Amino acid sequence: MVKRIVDILRNGQPEESVTVQGWVRTKRESKEFAFLEVNDGSSMANLQIVLNQDLPNYAEVIKQLNTGASVEIAGVLVPSLGKGQRIELKAQTVKVYGEADPESYPLQKKRHSFEFLRTIGHLRSRTNSFGAVFRIRNACSYAIHQFFQERGFLWIHTPIISASDCEGAGEMFTVTSLNLRNVPRTEAQEVDYSQDFFGRPAYLTVSGQLEAEVMAMAFSNVYTFGPTFRAENSNTSRHLAEFWMVEPEMAFCDLEGDMDLAEAFLKHIFKYVMETCHEDMEFFNQRIDNSVLATAENIINNQFERLTYTDAIALLEKTDQTFEYPVKWGLDLQSEHERYLAEEVFKKPVILTDYPTEIKAFYMRLNDDEKTVRAMDILAPKIGEIIGGSQREERLEVLQRRIEAQGLNPADYWWYLDLRRYGTVPHAGFGLGFERLVQFMTGMGNIRDVIPFPRAPLTVDF
Amino acid sequence: MVKRIVDILRNGQPEESVTVQGWVRTKRESKEFAFLEVNDGSSMANLQIVLNQDLPNYAEVIKQLNTGASVEIAGVLVPSLGKGQRIELKAQTVKVYGEADPESYPLQKKRHSFEFLRTIGHLRSRTNSFGAVFRIRNACSYAIHQFFQERGFLWIHTPIISASDCEGAGEMFTVTSLNLRNVPRTEAQEVDYSQDFFGRPAYLTVSGQLEAEVMAMAFSNVYTFGPTFRAENSNTSRHLAEFWMVEPEMAFCDLEGDMDLAEAFLKHIFKYVMETCHEDMEFFNQRIDNSVLATAENIINNQFERLTYTDAIALLEKTDQTFEYPVKWGLDLQSEHERYLAEEVFKKPVILTDYPTEIKAFYMRLNDDEKTVRAMDILAPKIGEIIGGSQREERLEVLQRRIEAQGLNPADYWWYLDLRRYGTVPHAGFGLGFERLVQFMTGMGNIRDVIPFPRAPLTVDF
After folding, report:
1. Which one of A3, A138, A209, A412 would you mutate to disrupt binding with B, by most B Cβ within 10 Å of its Cβ?
2. Is the N or C terminus of chain B more exposed, i.e. has fewer CB atoms within 10 Å?
3. How confident is the model at residue B32 (pLDDT cuts 50, 70, 90)?
C-alpha cells in the first residue's frame, strides 16, 4: 500500500509492508548494501531505505539512483539501527521513474545560497529549506480559513481587476487589452479607453477592503484572502509586487473588538503551525534564526500590550536609546521604533492605537479630538508592524469631509458612501500581509523566499 | 449577549435574553404592536421581532425602522404564534444605528430583476437570492480546502502576473507600469519593455497548472485555488474576464487516480453544502430551478459513468436525437452533446476520456495510438463540462515534440521541460471553474450573479 513518508515515520510498524513514492535525496554505498534517503515532500525528514545487493535489478538501478531521481520502492519496514530514525524500509522492489543526471542536476548534496536557488525557482522547493517554508505557508493558510470559518465569517472573493484605488495612494499596475505598440487615441490625443476591454482605465487591486466593507454590510462578518499588488519600484528584501493579504471586516464592531479578534487570530495561527509543522519550525530555529520558537511561544502565551500612539511617543521620547529617525508626535513610527517597543520595552507584541489623522487613511474613524483616528497597528518583536487595522468612519458627513480633505473626489466613492447612507453601522477590520507573517514565523530574511514564485522589479520568471 | 440570528433560530430557548444586530427587512404595524423582520446575513431566515408600544422610545424608533435600517435590539425570546417560525424576540431596547430613506433606498420590499441588482452590486448581497448565493459560495470554498487538506495536499499560491501563456492559447490581459499615453519605444520602434516594471511583456495568468506541476514535483500533492483571467471579448451569461479556478496536481498519479479524486471531490463539496446550507439550497429549488436538490442528490449518490470519447461519439452517432452541431470523431463535443449524454443517456455525471490529440493541449499525455491523449472531462446534467483534466506528458522527448507541433517554442518552456529532465514522474491533475460549480449548485442562470463583483467587457464597477 502506498503511504506518505510522514505517516510512515510517525506510525509505521516493523514488518509492515509499504510502498513509497518520492525522490532520492542521497545515496551511500557500502560493500553489501546501499542506503537511500527518499523524500516525498510530506515531511522534512527522509525515509531511509536499505537496498540489498540480491535485489534482482540492483546493478542497474544503483546507477540510476542519483540525487533527484524519482522512485517507487516497495518493501518491509524494519527497526533502524542508525541514529536519527526509528524505522527504515528494506526494499523488495525498486522502480526508477526518472533519473537526474548528476552532471547537470543543480541540486547536488551541498548547501546552496538562497540567491542561487531563486534562479532555479522551479526546483528550489525540493530543498529542505523551501520544503519547510511551503509546508508552513500552507499550514498558515489553512489556519486562517479555519479561524474565520469556525466563527461564522464568509470568505469573500474581492476583485483583482479594479477601477478604483482603495487608499488613494499606492502605485498601481495597469491592466489593458490594448496593444501597447499601437495605443488608440481620441481626437484630443488622449488614450481612447473606449477601445479597451473595460472601457476605462483598470488596475490591479491594492486592497479588497472597500469591497469587504460592502459584504460586511450584508453578512456582518467576512474576510478576504487573496493576491494584492503594488507597482512600487522597490528592489528590496521586504517588498513584492504581488503578495497575499488577509482582510477581515466586521459589522457592529469597534476598535476594541477589532484588536481582540486580531490578537486571537495571530495566536491561533501560531498554535496551529506549532502543532502541525513542529519539525519544520525546529529546522528554522536551528538553521535560520534561533529565536523563532521563542517568538512563537511569546505570541501564543502573552496578552498583547495595548497603548495609544501618543503614549508610545512619550515613552520613546523619554528613553536613552538613540534612533536613526526622529521621534515626534505626528510623525510615523519607523521599524526601529516599533521593534524597540516590542523587543526592549514590552518584550511581547504591542498594539498601538489612535494615530494622528494626517498619517492614516481617509476611511479610519475620526476621534472626537479630531487629531487622531481609531487606527491600530500590531507591532511584533523582530519584524515590526505585522497587522494594521481600524474602526471605519461610518458617519456619512465626516467621511465625505475626509475624502475631500485628501484631495479625492467623493463622486468616485459613490457606492462606498452609499454604505453610510443606507443602514450604516459601526464596523472595523484589519489587514495582514501574509508573506510578512510567514517571514515572521520562519525567520526567513528575504520576502522572495516565502512565496513560491516572487514578482518584483525585473522579476517575473516561471 | 449578542447572538447570530442563525444560532437563535436553531438553538434559542424561550425566556432567553439575547441581543441581535442586523438590518430591517420589513416592518408591519398593528394597533398595539409592530413586527420587524431582521436579518444579519447569517441565514436566509429573518428573526421576527415584536415591538410593544410601551417601549420608551417607540414613537421615535418606529419612524426610523424602515427597510434597510441597521439596529441593535435586546430582549427576551418567546415562542412564536405566527406561522413559519418557532421563536421570536420581544424587544426591550431598540437602538437604530443607521436609517435607510425609503424614498431613495433601492431595495424596497418587492422583487427586483437580477439585471437591475447588477447595477447596485454594492447593495445586492442584502437580498435573499444573493445572500444565499454567497453563503453557498463560501461553503463550497471551505469544502474545497477541507477536502484537500484532509488528504495532505498543500495549497499553493501560483502567480497572477505571468510572462508565459500556459496553454499556448487564450487571450490575455497585459499588465504594465508604462504610461499608456506615452509608451516608450526602442530605436526599432518596438515597445521598450526595458522601461516596464518587469523588463518584458507580462500578463494576467490563464491557469496555475504549470506552476502547480513544479510544486507537485516537490510535495507530491498540491492544489491551487485562485483567480484566473481571460481577455476574451465574450459578453455572455457564461463568461467572466476574472474567475476563480481550483487546480489540483498529483505526482505518481495516472488518469484513473485523477478521475477517482475528481469524483470524490465533487461529491464532498455537494455533501458539505447540503449539510451546511440546506435552507439556502431549498430556496434555490423553490425560486430558481426546481431540479437543484435532485441534481445534488444525483451527484452525491451515483457512481459517475466512465467511457472514452470514441465510445461517446459512436453512441451519439447512433441516436435519433437531432443536434445543432455535427457529431464526428475529431470534433469537440458541444454543450448539447455533453448534456444529452449526462441527462438523457446516463442520467448522471459522465467522465469522458481519451480525446483526440488535436483538440487538446500539448501537455496531455499521448496514448500509444498517437491519435488520442489521456484527457478527461466530467460532464454534468444541466451544465455540461464542469471539470477538465488529464494525465500530463512526463516523457521529455514526447513533450518537446508536442510543443513544437503546436508551433510553440520549447525554449520558452525550459523550466517546464526541466521537470521531465530531473526526476520525472507520471502525474495528473484537473481544473474546476469555480463559478461554474456555484452556478451548477444553485441553478443561477448568469455567471455574473455568482461572483460578488463580476468583471466582463465594459464591466468593472465597484
Report:
1. A138
2. N
3. confident
Is B428 inside any structural domain? yes
For residue B381, name the pLDDT band (cuts at 50, 70, 90): confident
The C-alpha of A113 sits at a distance from chain B's nearest C-alpha, in angstroms, of: 19
Q: Which residues contact A434 (CB under 8 A, 6 or more apart)?
A: A140, A141, A225, A243, A244, A245, A246
Same domain, A336 and A310: yes
Spatial neighbors of B100 by CB under 8 A, at least 6 apart, are A421, A422, A423, B24, B66, B67, B68, B69
Average pLDDT over residues A422-437: 98
B135/A98 Cβ within 8 A: no
Residue pLDDT, tens place only, B42-75 = 999 999 999 999 898 999 999 999 999 999 999 9
pTM metric for this prediction: 0.97
Q: Is the pLDDT of residue A167 over 60?
A: no
Rounded Cα gap, residues A47 and A3, in angstroms = 11
Whether residues B97 and A157 touch (CB distance < 8 A) is answered with no
How high is the pLDDT of residue B36? Answer: 97
> Using the beta-carbon criterion (under 8 Å), do A422 and B6 form an inter-chain contact?
no
d(CA A13, CA A87): 8
Please indicate, yes or no, if residue B180 is contained in any of the structural domains: no
Residue A43 three-state SS: coil
Q: Do B138 and A130 touch (CB under 8 A)?
A: no
Decide if B70 and A97 are in contact by the 8 Å CB cutoff: no
| % pLDDT > 90, chain B | 92
Q: Which of A59, A76, A109 is the last residue of a domain?
A: A109
* B chain contacts of residue A252, beta-carbon cutoff 8 Å: 2, 21, 72, 97
Inspect the interface and report whether the beta carbons of B97 and A424 lie closer than 8 Å. Answer: yes
User: Which pLDDT tens digit goes with each residue over A1-23?
Assistant: 999 999 999 999 999 999 999 99
Same domain, A64 and A163: no
* pLDDT score of A227 more than 70: yes
| Inter-chain contacts counted by CB atoms under 8 A, chains A and B | 319
Q: Answer whether residue B222 shows pLDDT above 80.
A: yes
CB contact under 8 A, B98 and A425: yes
Contacts of A460 (CB under 8 A, 6+ apart): B159, B161, B162, B163, B198, B199, B200, B202
In this structure, the dihedral spanned by the alpha carbons of residues B323, B324, B329 and B331, taken in order and rounded to 10 degrees, is -150
Average pLDDT over residues B129-136: 98
3-state helix vs strand vs coil in chain B, percent to 5: 35, 25, 40
Domains held by chain B: number: 2
Chain A contact set for B415 (CB, 8 A):
121-122, 461-462
Task: Examine the domain organization and report whether A73 and A145 are in the same domain.
Answer: no
Flag the least confident range among A171-175, A374-378, A407-411.
A407-411
Q: What is the pLDDT of residue B167?
A: 55
- What residues form DSSP beta bridges with B314? none
- Average model confidence (pLDDT) for chain A? 95
pLDDT, position A381: 86
Compare CB distances from B453 to A41, A158, A252 and report the shortest one's residue. A158
Say yes or no for a CB contact (<8 Å) between A4 and B204. Answer: no
Contacts of residue A177, Cβ cutoff 8 Å, sequence gap at least 6: A196, A197, B171, B173, B174, B231, B233
Asked if residues A73 and A91 have their Cβ atoms less than 8 Å apart, the reply is: yes
Interface test with chain B among A422, A424, A455, by most B beta carbons within 10 Å: A422
Provide the domain limits for residue B343.
125-171+206-449
DSSP state of B367: P
Average pLDDT over residues A208-217: 97
Q: Give the ipTM of the model, two decimals please.
A: 0.97
Adjacent-strand bridge partners of A70: A23, A98
Q: Is residue A310, in this structure, part of any structural domain at all? A: yes
Instruction: Please give the single-letter amino acid code of residue A268.
Output: H
Specify if B455 maps to a domain.
no
Q: State the pLDDT at residue B168.
A: 54
